[in-house]
Write a structure and sequence with these properties.
Strand 8 and strand 9 form a beta hairpin. Helices cover 25% and strands 27% of the residues. It is globular. The chain has a 6-stranded mixed beta sheet with strand order 6-7-8-9-12-13. The chain is built from 7 helices and 13 strands.
């Protein structure tokens, strides 16, 4: 599926954003000897972003953070079965924070949390405040936005959330997308047709 995952080193441990296929072995190769994965942040539960959440949890004992508890409805497993995709191994969300949590300290790093539905009901962007980096899953792409034709999707809701929470960030903020290349808020303000 070409889904991105991001491994971040903090002063108090390692944090991974999203868990696509192959993430567990990739993380094991990246971690220094003796280090472990402390936190897994899920941007949304569509199957391509959580395929290895259970494997990561079992291998590293990491704490899983997401907007909502694990749900086959959120992972789109019913739709995926129709496409011939295997089911997602169920995983435990240790910190299902909903819309209440707006900030957190994970790995000794300060994070700000934005709930931005529209692509997925549980869509979340995580801003690493001190580094001007935001991890957006499939909310925003370089030159585009996430599709909204899945159950619960809404283009108006998605665009409103992007404009309210993301486009108000510093234009130099780096945007790490769930698929494709990184971009910046400034670049998307100038060239993304959905931000006008």
């Amino acid at each position: 599926m070409g889904c991105n995952a991001y491994l971040i080193e903090g002063p108090e441990g390692y944090v991974l954003v999203d868990a696509p296929d192959g993430a567990a072995s990739w993380v094991a190769q990246q971690l220094p000897h003796g280090a472990s994965l402390n936190h897994l942040l899920i941007t949304h539960q569509h199957f391509d972003h959580v395929e290895e959440a259970a494997a990561l949890q079992e291998r590293f004992g990491c704490t899983v953070h997401a907007h909502s508890s694990y749900s086959p409805a959120l992972t789109l497993e019913e739709l995926g079965a129709g496409w011939g995709l295997p089911p997602v191994s169920s995983f435990r969300v240790d910190d299902a924070f909903g819309s209440a949590k707006i900030s957190a300290d994970w790995g000794g790093l300060s994070w700000k949390i934005f709930h931005i539905p529209g692509h997925a009901a549980d869509g979340v962007a995580y801003l690493l405040q001190d580094e001007n980096r935001v991890f957006v899953g499939d909310i925003l792409f370089a030159g585009s936005v996430g599709r909204t034709d899945f159950p619960g999707g809404s283009m108006s809701q998605l665009v409103r959330g992007i404009r309210t929470h993301l486009l108000t960030l510093d234009p130099h903020t780096e945007v790490f997308c769930g698929h494709g290349p990184t971009t910046t808020i400034g670049e998307e303000l100038l060239n993304n047709p959905y931000t006008a």
